[in-house]
Amino acid sequence: MALHRTGIRLDMTPMVDIAFLLLTFFMLTTQFRPPAEVDVILPDSHSQIKLPESDVLTITIAKEGDLYVGVDSQFLRRRLFGEEYALRTEVPIEMNALAHKLVEARVSNPKLRAVLKSDRDTEYGVVMEVMDIMQKVNLTRFNLVTNLERSEAE
After folding, report:
1. Cβ neighbours of residue 132 closer than 8 Å, sequence gap 6 or more
2. DSSP state of 110
3. DSSP state letter for 122
4. pLDDT tens digits for 37-91?
5. How far apart are CA 64 and CA 128, in angstroms?
6. Contact 80, 71 (CB under 8 A)
7. What is the distance between the alpha carbons of residues 109 and 150, in angstroms, rounded to a whole number?
8. Partner of 111 for a Cys bridge, out of 55, 70, 71, 84, CB 3.0 to 4.6 A?
9. How many other β-carbons are positioned within 10 Å of the β-carbon of residue 105?
10. What predicted TM-score, i.e. pTM, was given to this entire model?
11. Could you please report the per-residue DSSP string of 8-72?
């Protein structure tokens, strides 16, 4: 009596369904970040403290001393700076308007954590003036953004 061989049939439909569901999930949840308004070359440091990932208020000082303020929330950005700046990461601002904008941002979202990002070639006086304004509006806890300096052994 001869044995009857049966072929193995593997249904790939559930695996393809899951692959497309994952692809759709990642496409819908990905947030594209618009390009930065200003290029800043950060100074080096040994600090390994991570920056907060959400509720971040970024104050950027360009090499020439120009100020930019940005928040990570598009809704808050629209509320603070208007509809035309909703898709921009940072908005240029004058030094004399910085205090008002910082207070307005903190009133809109009390959880905001300030981050100060300055170019390595920016004059110290400009950075000091921004820090004085932050202190005047009672924004005394903030992070300085730096690059992690690599040791010679690496």
Report:
1. none
2. T
3. S
4. 888 899 888 888 888 888 999 999 999 999 999 998 888 888 888 888 888 888 9
5. 15
6. yes
7. 36
8. 55
9. 23
10. 0.73
11. -----HHHHHHHHHHHHHHHHH--PPPPPSS---PPEES--PPPPSSSEEEEEE-TTS-EEEEES
Q: Tokens at residue 29, please?
A: 């949840």
Query: CA-CA-CA-CA torsion for 141, 75, 126, 45, nearest 10 degrees?
Result: 60
Four-point Cα dihedral 75, 79, 83, 88, nearest 10: -60
Yes or no: say if 76 and 69 are a contact pair by the CB < 8 Å rule. no
List the structure tokens of 109: 């979202």
Tokens 């954590």 found at: 113
d(CA 43, CA 26): 34
Contact 79, 25 (CB under 8 A): no
Q: What are phi and psi of 125, to 5 degrees?
A: -60, -40
Question: Hey, is 128 helix, strand or coil?
Answer: helix
d(CA 64, CA 121): 8
